[in-house]
Design a protein that fits this description.
mainly alpha; Tetracycline Repressor, domain 2; elongated; 9 helices; single chain
Length: about 200
């Protein structure tokens, strides 16, 4: 069996860290916990990340890149604005089911412990790859007269509010139907809330 590459080891640390931080919280999880989870020594861990704070920032960038790259693919497709919204909702709900640690980390660590991230992640700096693609979606929707021309943050807040609310209900096991069953209704709600008035 071939030895894992450095990139594979780094990805293993990222995956394990997301799970541990999401389950236990940032402050309780230690570097030895993470190293043990991935089967490496603490000394080897420091070859990849020199501190837990640096790892924390890398995880936010990882999640933003994941979302941004998927939305970029959707933005570059030939789909119409309404279909693009459906695809983004679908991708996000799939992520909530298949990679819940990403959303948990964002909520439990990034939004709840902003002191860890400091100036380097002030505002939307650390999530810019994701936010930029959402800006493109809205701008293109306005340009083809499918979406109402409004303040970006109002549109972004509405969009993410729908997604965040549904994923919260899913995580709390409140939804009477599987999360996937809500993809169409939620994407339609978002589109009709954002659509052009003309």
């Amino acid at each position: 069996m071939a030895r894992p590459t450095k990139e594979e080891r780094k990805n293993g640390i990222i995956s394990a860290s997301l799970k541990l931080f999401s389950e236990r919280g940032f402050y309780i999880t230690t570097i030895p916990d993470i190293a043990q989870k991935v089967g490496m020594s603490v000394g080897s861990f420091y070859n990849y990340f020199t501190s837990k704070d640096i790892l924390a920032k890398e995880l936010v960038l990882h999640i933003a890149e994941y979302l941004g790259s998927h939305i970029k693919d959707i933005n570059e497709s030939d789909l119409g604005t309404e279909e693009k919204i459906y695809e983004i909702v679908s991708m996000y709900f799939d992520m909530a089911e298949e990679k819940p640690e990403m959303i948990e980390y964002f909520l439990r660590v990034y939004l709840s412990n902003r002191e860890i991230f400091g100036e380097e992640c002030k505002g939307m700096i650390c999530v810019s790859s994701f936010v930029t693609e959402m800006m493109i979606l809205f701008d293109e929707g306005v340009a083809c007269d499918k979406l109402h021309n409004q303040d970006f943050f109002s549109a972004f807040g509405l969009f993410m509010g729908y997604l965040g609310g549904m994923v919260f209900l899913f995580g709390e096991d409140i939804l009477p139907e599987p999360l996937a069953d809500y993809k169409t209704s939620i994407s339609e709600n978002i589109f009709y809330a954002l659509k052009s008035r003309s």
